[in-house]
Amino acid sequence: MDVDYSRIRSITAREVIAALNRDGFYFIRQRGSHQRYGNADGRRVTVAPHGGGDTFTIKTLKTMIEVQARWTEADLIRLGIVKK
């Protein structure tokens, strides 16, 4: 099932980080503005919060959600990022 990015277009860095924490990710390190989060299963996600209220482009969201965190639509619902 493909992720509908129109439903999460306005997600902020703070919300992404909170969802990562709910999914078991933990802060590893920061280099400049890029924060690296890891999970015990080996997944790694880099978040670049350029201001807590800033939102991400679709391309950046797709990389963080599908490629790095490997979340599905069901994961996004479970984590409270999108509504059913």
Describe the structure.
The protein has three helices and three strands; from the N terminus they run αβββαα. The protein is an alpha+beta fold. The protein has one domain (5-78): Metal Transport, Frataxin, Chain A. It has a three-stranded antiparallel sheet with strand order 1-2-3, with helices on one face. Strand 1 (26-31) and strand 2 form a beta hairpin. The longest helix has 11 residues, at 58-68. The radius of gyration is 12 Å and the shape is globular.
Which strand-content bin applies to the residues? 15-25%
Going by CATH, the architecture would be 2-Layer Sandwich
Low-pLDDT residue spans: none
Distance between the termini: 14 Å
Order of helices and strands: HEEEHH
Largest sheet properties? 3 strands, antiparallel
Counting DSSP H or I runs of 4 or more residues, the number of helices is 3
Strand order of the largest sheet: 1-2-3
Q: What percent of the residues sit in helical stretches (DSSP H or I)?
A: 25-40%
**What would the principal axes of the Cα set say about the shape?**
globular
Average of pLDDT = 90
For this structure, the CATH topology is Metal Transport, Frataxin, Chain A
What's the total number of strands?
A: 3
